[in-house]
Amino acid sequence: MSASLLRRGLELLEAPGQGKAPPGLQRERDGPRAAGAARRRKKAPQLDKNKATIKGRVVKSAIEEYHKRKAVNHLSTNLRYMLKGRCVANKAITEQVLAQNRGRKSKDLPPKKVAKKKPEGTVFTEEDFRKFEREYFGRP
Question: Does the keyword Nucleus apply (predicted)?
Answer without folding.
Answer: yes
